[in-house]
Specification:
Rossmann fold; 8-stranded mixed beta sheet
């Protein structure tokens, strides 16, 4: 791949190229939290939307023994996911290139659907969510780990993040995501009930950025690049990591688990809080 081509890669394409093990917000702890609170075991079949380079799918299988299918729109990421699963002996995990707006699965196929933050990058969010719910079994769990803004970011940061991911990012807050999933479900004739939620904020990782970039560029397949290619990869990597770190200082994320119901119950009147 020429240096000029590398410079034009968006973030998703770049991650596939350098084979970064892209994790969900919260990393392995988020995978564990979902596994415990969604009661995932070896009898379950999970679909991950936007599986990227395979971290969530592979580690959910290794943790619980569940069968996992991961889909992503970027073929290099799909190939890297397959290699990652093979190296870790995750035989119950498969990956394929597919479009979230037209999932190639029958209705009510999966016990668990993990969408993480990928819905942010899809223009027609309502159609995507309708597809998520179509392939999820009644009683199944919809896992949503959205990134949202706790305070408004500067306009130039927001514009730069949108350019980096190739999709216009708006100042969505936490309530936006909950309302979006609930309203789409209702419009499609589904009922969903949130049964778990946990909120987080991001830490400033600027001081750790140089060492992390060095770690990524130390990958074996990148050592064969030319000096010019390596320099462009380093600059691109530093750009993305610095930009996203700046952006996340205004952001937070939540782990939200919804159950797909066969009918809607009335809302709960007597509320409580932990003391």
């Amino acid at each position: 791949m020429s240096p000029k081509t590398i410079e034009k890669l968006n973030y998703s394409q770049f991650v596939g190229f350098i084979k970064e093990r892209n994790r969900p917000s919260g990393g392995i702890k988020t995978v564990h939290t979902v596994a415990v609170n969604a009661f995932v075991d070896s009898s379950k079949h999970m679909l991950e939307i936007g599986s990227n380079t395979g971290f969530t799918s592979v580690n959910m299988h290794l943790l619980t023994g569940c069968k996992v299918t991961g889909i992503d729109s970027n073929p290099p990421s799909v190939e890297e996911s397959r290699e990652y699963a093979a190296r870790l002996g995750a035989q119950g995990v498969s990956f394929m290139a597919a479009n979230a707006l037209e999932l190639p699965f029958e209705d009510e196929t999966f016990d668990l659907l993990w969408s993480s933050n990928v819905t942010s990058f899809i223009d027609d969010k309502n159609k995507a969510i309708a597809e998520y719910l179509r392939v999820l079994k009644p009683g199944g769990t919809l896992v949503v780990v959205p990134i949202y803004y706790r305070t408004d970011p500067p306009t130039d940061v927001l514009r730069s993040v949108s350019d980096a991911v190739g999709v216009e990012i708006k100042v969505w807050d936490k309530q936006y995501w909950d309302d979006l999933f609930r309203s789409t479900a209702a419009a499609e004739g589904y009922s969903i009930e949130k049964f778990y939620e946990s909120d987080y904020r991001y830490l400033d990782r600027k001081s750790a950025l140089p060492s992390y970039v060095d770690l990524l560029l130390g990958k074996q397949h990148l050592k064969n690049l030319s000096k010019e290619q390596k320099q462009v990869v380093r600059e691109r990597c530093e750009h993305f990591m610095s930009l996203f770190n700046d952006n996340l200082q205004y952001a937070g994320y939540s782990i939200m688990l919804y159950q797909k119901r066969t009918e809607e119950d009335e809302t709960e009147f007597f509320l409580s809080e932990k003391v």
